[in-house]
């Protein structure tokens, strides 16, 4: 499966978990509001029930008294008139009706109170469950989030390695093509020339001995040139002196040659030097400086270059500073790989492979400064 697709799937899972969580939080919030509302209703009903009970108690006493009064009045015909009896009767009757009504109300309120109590209990239970669910989602989110991030990082890593691998293969192919071209244009051509020159000598031998001696001189010169060419190619493949005398003397020799060929003066200073045993690192550092100087030669139009190397026990820091015309680094980075220019890219890849750090600072007409930091330990 495509890595980008996997990443999409992971992001979707995380988003959908996040959405579910926010839905559950909404539900929690609603239930919490309902609980508050139900609690308020309950308080007010309790208040009502309380007052009603008081009222019913009062009415019960009043009604009892009114019945007593009615009994008294209706027994004593002498003392009380028909009017009094009716009055007492009506009062008792009214109180009884009031009492029945209030009792009825009391019953209804108690019923509603019970109902609300049941609803409140069930809402509280649901709230507890929902809150439980959010904390579970939190755990899932944390767990998955962490793991998915790990997986995401690993996939990113694989992707980067994949890209890097392809670039390395590409760079290797480039290097091979360059070597093939060098051999084709140099030694192969010289050797073909040598065969022709040898044939000419062979023919001249019997005819003109002086001329043939001249041709042999020419032949020797040609052979020396070819040896020089071959040495150059070998040196470019891997400077032997790196293994024999180490990085710093190899660089010194290279720099001397560079100065002689270009008339650019190089100020080479080694600030501290703890010998570097690692041959891969030595070669990489050599190549980085070689590429930086090649760029100075090709593009910078510089007068002087400062090279500083600090090799301590922890890391190796290299500064290459030229006083040339400078360039737009961001633009050059974007154009990497186009027009067959891989120099800066190769530099970056070499540094990356050694877990190091490469900084290129350049301003138009202000020169270029390249800083490389490579840890000694991998
Ligand atoms: N020291 C420098 N001074 C000025 N321009 C530079 C320097 N180094 C690099 N550049 C610019 O950056 C571009 C990319 O460099 P590089 O990747 O080495 O490719 P190439 O050297 O093959 O052109 C160069 O074409 C040049 O324009
Ligand atoms: Mg270059």
Architecture overview:
There is one protein chain. This protein has 378 residues and is of the alpha+beta class. The chain folds into three domains: 3-163, Helix Hairpins (Orthogonal Bundle), CATH 1.10.287.950; 172-235; 239-375, Heat Shock Protein 90 (2-Layer Sandwich), CATH 3.30.565. 75% of the residues lie in helices and 11% in strands. It has eight helices and five strands. It has helices at 3-75, 82-205, 209-237, 241-244, 247-262, 279-300, 329-334, 343-353; strands spanning 265-273, 304-311, 315-322, 357-363, 367-375. It has a five-stranded mixed β-sheet, covered by helices on one side. Strand 1, helix 6 (279-300) and strand 2 form a beta-alpha-beta unit. Helix 5 (247-262) runs parallel beside helix 6 (279-300) and helix 6 packs antiparallel against helix 8. The chain is rod-shaped and about 185 Å long. The model has no long low-confidence stretch (mean pLDDT 89). Bound molecules: adenosine-5'-diphosphate and magnesium ion. Residues 295-296, 298-300, 322, 324-327, 332, 336, 341, 343-344, 368 line the site of adenosine-5'-diphosphate. It catalyses: ATP + protein L-histidine = ADP + protein N-phospho-L-histidine. Pfam families: DegS, HATPase_c, HisKA_3. Its EC number is 2.7.13.3. This is histidine kinase. It comes from Natronincola ferrireducens.
Brief synopsis:
It catalyses: ATP + protein L-histidine = ADP + protein N-phospho-L-histidine. Helices cover about 75% and strands about 10% of the residues.
